[in-house]
C-alpha cells in the first residue's frame, strides 16, 4: 500500500513540474496592425506604412512614456538601405515621409529611452 501511495505522489509531482515549465501562451500580439518583437523585457511594435513609420513601446501591455526618447531605424528593402530618426509623437516614436516598403523588408531599430541602455531590435515586415 505504501508503495502505491509513493508512486502516485511521485507521478503527481512530475506532472506538476511539466506544467510549470510550459510557456503559458505568452505571445505578444500587435495592437496597431504592426509587427511585434521583444527586447529588454519590453514589447516593441513597428507599424510601417508608405507615409509614416511608428514604433510603439509597451511594458507588460502598458505604454512606456517616451518623453526624451529617440530611435534610429535602418530599413532594408531589397537592395535599398535607408536610415531614419524617429522622434516622440504622443505615445509612439515616429517618422513621416515617403517610404518604399516591399514585402520581406527588414528593419533594425536602436531605441534610446531616458535612463536606460540602448535597445536594439529586429523586425521582418510582412
From TrEMBL:
Going by the UniProt record, its keywords in alphabetical order are: Signal
Signal peptide from the UniProt entry: 1-20
Recorded protein name is: Copper(I)-binding protein
Q: What is the lineage of its organism?
A: Bacteria, Pseudomonadati, Pseudomonadota, Betaproteobacteria, Burkholderiales
Amino acid at each position: 500500500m505504501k508503495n502505491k501511495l509513493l508512486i502516485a505522489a511521485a507521478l503527481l509531482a512530475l506532472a506538476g513540474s511539466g506544467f510549470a515549465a510550459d510557456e503559458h501562451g505568452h505571445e505578444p500580439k500587435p495592437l496597431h496592425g504592426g509587427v511585434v518583437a521583444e527586447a529588454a523585457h519590453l514589447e516593441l511594435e513597428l507599424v510601417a506604412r508608405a507615409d509614416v513609420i511608428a514604433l510603439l513601446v509597451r511594458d507588460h501591455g502598458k505604454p512606456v512614456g517616451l518623453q526624451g526618447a529617440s530611435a534610429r531605424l535602418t530599413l532594408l528593402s531589397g537592395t535599398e538601405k535607408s536610415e531614419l530618426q524617429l522622434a516622440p509623437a504622443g505615445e509612439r516614436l515616429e517618422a513621416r515621409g515617403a517610404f518604399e516598403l516591399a514585402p520581406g523588408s527588414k528593419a533594425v531599430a536602436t531605441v534610446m529611452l531616458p535612463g536606460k541602455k540602448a535597445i536594439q531590435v529586429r523586425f521582418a515586415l510582412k
